[in-house]
Each structure stands twice: as C-alpha cells, then as structure tokens.
Amino acid sequence: MPNYKLELEYDGTDYSGWQKQPGLQTVQGKLEEALAGVSTLESPIYAAGRTDAGVHARGQVVNFFAALKPSPGRLAAALNSFLPPDIAVRGCEEVGDGFNARRSALAREYVYYIYRGGYPSPFKRRYAYHFPGNLDTGAMEDALEVVIGTHDFAAFSRRDEGKHSVRKVFEAELRSVEDELCIRVKANAFVWMMMRMLCGSLLEVGRGRWTVADFMQVMEGEDNSLSGPALPPHGLFLERVFY
Amino acid sequence: MPNYKLELEYDGTDYSGWQKQPGLQTVQGKLEEALAGVSTLESPIYAAGRTDAGVHARGQVVNFFAALKPSPGRLAAALNSFLPPDIAVRGCEEVGDGFNARRSALAREYVYYIYRGGYPSPFKRRYAYHFPGNLDTGAMEDALEVVIGTHDFAAFSRRDEGKHSVRKVFEAELRSVEDELCIRVKANAFVWMMMRMLCGSLLEVGRGRWTVADFMQVMEGEDNSLSGPALPPHGLFLERVFY
C-alpha cells in the first residue's frame, strides 16, 4: 500500500486551522474530501505542522497511506482539481513505509510578516500584520539572537499541562524586504503559539517598551503571563519542513 | 473650496468595478460613503481610470471638491478609518482648481500578470491569471512592440458606437519575474477592454496559435471579432497615472 508525501500551499484565511474539527472548515477536512474523489484513505493524514486558524502555509508536508496507486503526478493533478482554490498541492511523491510527515521531520521553518507601510494595504491585509509605527530593528535582531539554541519556551507558549516546552532553535533571522519585516525561525519543533508570542515579544523590544535584557528575562522566567501579546495569525506562514 | 487629489489602492475582487451603479458594490460607492463621514462632497468624484469589475488598482487617482478643509494627512487617515480593508488611500494632496484626475492625466499604466507555475497558487489566485502551459515569450515581445505608437485599437476593444478608439502607446514591455509574466503598457488612455483583449491576443502568439504577423493583421484589421479572448479581470492592475 503506497505512502504518499504531499507538499501543500494554503491561504489559511478562511479555515479553522489544519486539524479536522467537527462542524468547522479545516484544511485537513478539505484534503480528506478531495482524496475521497481519488482513492480510499488507509491511514490518518499526518501533518508536519498543525497550523492554527488563519495561519498560512507555503510548504506544509503531510503523508498518508492510500488503497489505490495512482502515479504521484496524477494524484497531485486530481487533488488540485478537487481542492478549493485556496489550497493547492505543490508536490507529491511516493515515499517509504517508514516516512511520517510529523515524526520524520527534522526541522520546521516559520516566517512572520510585519507590514510597516504608512497606510493599511489592501494586498497585504490577509498576509502580514500591519504595524506602521517606528521599530528599532537592531534591538529586535539582538533579541532574536537570544532564542537561538535549546531553551524552554514556556514563556512563549500556551502549552498543554504536563507537556514539556523545550525546543531547539537552529536559525532565527530578521530581514527587511521593501516595507516588510520578515521574522524567520527554524527549529526542531514549535510549541503552541510560540511564533506569535515570540514575535509579539520582539515587537515590545522594537517599540522600545522592553530592552533586550527584559526579553531574555521573560524568556528565561518561563511564565507566559509576562509574554508580549500574541500577534494575529494572518502574518504567519509555515514556510518549509526539513527531512 | 479645496480640490483634493487622492491616490487609491484597491483589491477589486469583491467590487463591480470603480463606477457607481445602483444596487452594486463599487469602489466609487465605498469612497463616497467614507467621505460622507468626513466632509460634504461638492462635486462628483473624477477618476483617472474606470476599472472594470474585478480589476485591481495600485495607483488609481481621483479628485473631488469638498466643503470642509481638513489637512490632506488628516483626510487620508479619516478615509482609511472609514474605508473597508480592501480599499486604501495611499496619498492625498490639495491641488489647484484646474486639476481633474481624468482630463489632466497624461498617461495611464496598466500591468497584466500571468502566473506560469505548474499548480494553481492559493496566494496568486486573486491577482494573476494562471496559465501553466508553454509560452514563446520572445514572440510575445515582438508582438508587443507592434502596439507601440499611435494606432486604432478597435480590434482590442468593445468600444461604444461612435466613439473613436485611436490611442497612443508610449511603452509596452514584457517582463518575467520568478514564475510570473508581467505585461506592462503605458498609453495616453485605454479603450474599454483594451488591456484584456490585447493580452489575450498576445497569449495566442505565445501559444504558437498566431504568428506576430497574424497579431499585426488582427490589430490593423480593426475588427474585434478576430481578437484573442479577453483575459479575466483578476490579473489586471491599474498601476500608475501620470500627470
């Protein structure tokens, strides 16, 4: 029975996130509906990142076992014809039985976009958080360096009770591209809300409300009531998953 | 009585075009509603380009006379607070009485975007026409050169009876940017549907259905029943207006 790996791109605006939930429109739900037109699912769909409501993906990776064995190219084309226009399969391959999109992933990369233009842009409103005020990007870069390495990210997460929140950040980078600020973080995994709370805390530094030392203290204090406010989901993209 | 010039950006997806029409949602209608919260309009709103349903603008220019005299910065901020998120004022200034956004314009620049990726992109679906097939872009460039200069564009328009369709094209350029093809045309003015029919005809050349000579013959024949099919509105942007 073939194990298919899909790379997905989706505009999360109109979805209650990746994970299937009764009565809600979810990306997983739409993918299962599209698959029903092509083959029979013989396993759950495993996903590398359980993106929250409103979060986008340019490179979500999922896998599943299917009863029929269409070629990867035909499967991708068939799924794209059944999927709504805000979800697309951008790659499909058959992988070994041992591959699991979630457990086999070595790292995930998320990017948060902050749009800094003076007026609210109609073309960025769905894909970037609008913050027109001044920002000390040098201080933000210094704070972002603090997160690289292995840390307990309890301060920047709404973790489930009893689950640990130690994660390893491989890379963290701030880039200015035209009137956007892109915060890119690559880590072995992310705790729930980590990117949005981390970016909200970085914004406190950028606005001069916190020093880099304050940021470090909040992170090390592991108390999420001291975090900066979580930024809204629409600026966040699951960019890529590494295997 | 002050004469205000506004530069507007809008996502045309959810509008029946610029021009106010009873019972329909239009950009002009939304702007008039927003203005009602700020001042009293003492003239019609004049626009440089009457964009059709679904067409976007990055640099539409309009003007109007108003009863009150807020500073341009305050007027822009107030309008942006009243306008829906898919319409934004990106610039505002007070201009002389003689300025008319439509009559004073020396040139308009439109850009048509063709997305050439192999799968339908969730992030481009509202802003580019998806054409995944092969295209001979060299031949398209040659055809595009033919339109530069003063011509009767009757073949590429659905003109109103009795109105003339001679226009002067100053610049016409094809550019490839990553997986997009951008067709940029700057002309003194455009006849109705001109960009979409011109780009649809260019696509016939790109697909090898027409030679450049065929394209030239259709254009010179001035018979719009021989034009390539008009491309859909969502790939078209009113980019800039020149004064």
Topology:
Two copies of one chain form a homodimer.
Chain A: E1 3-10, H1 27-36, E2 46-47, E3 56-65, H2 72-82, E4 87-95, E5 107-115, E6 129-130, H3 137-146, E7 149-152, E8 166-177, E9 180-187, H4 194-206, H5 212-221, E10 236-242
Parallel strand pairs in A: 3-10, 5-6
Antiparallel strand pairs in A: 1-3, 1-4, 2-3, 5-9, 5-10, 7-8, 8-9
How would you sum up this structure in a few lines?
With 243 residues, chain A is of the alpha+beta class. Helix content of chain A is 22%, strand content 29%.
Structure in words:
The structure is a homodimer of 243-residue chains. Chain A is α+β, with helices and mostly antiparallel strands and 243 residues long. Chain A folds into two domains: 3-95, Pseudouridine synthase I, catalytic domain, N-terminal subdomain (Alpha-Beta Plaits, 2-Layer Sandwich); 107-242, Pseudouridine synthase I, catalytic domain, C-terminal subdomain (Alpha-Beta Plaits, 2-Layer Sandwich), CATH 3.30.70.660. In chain A, 22% of the residues lie in helices and 29% in strands. Chain A is built from five helices and ten strands. Chain A has helices at residues 27-36, 72-82, 137-146, 194-206, 212-221; strands spanning 3-10, 46-47, 56-65, 87-95, 107-115, 129-130, 149-152, 166-177, 180-187, 236-242. In chain A, strands 1, 2, 3, 4, 5, 6, 7, 8, 9 and 10 form a ten-stranded mixed beta sheet that branches. In chain A, helix 3 crosses helix 4 and helix 3 (137-146) packs parallel to helix 5 (212-221). The longest helix of chain A has 13 residues, at 194-206. The two termini of chain A are 22 Å apart. The model of chain A has no long low-confidence stretch (mean pLDDT 95).
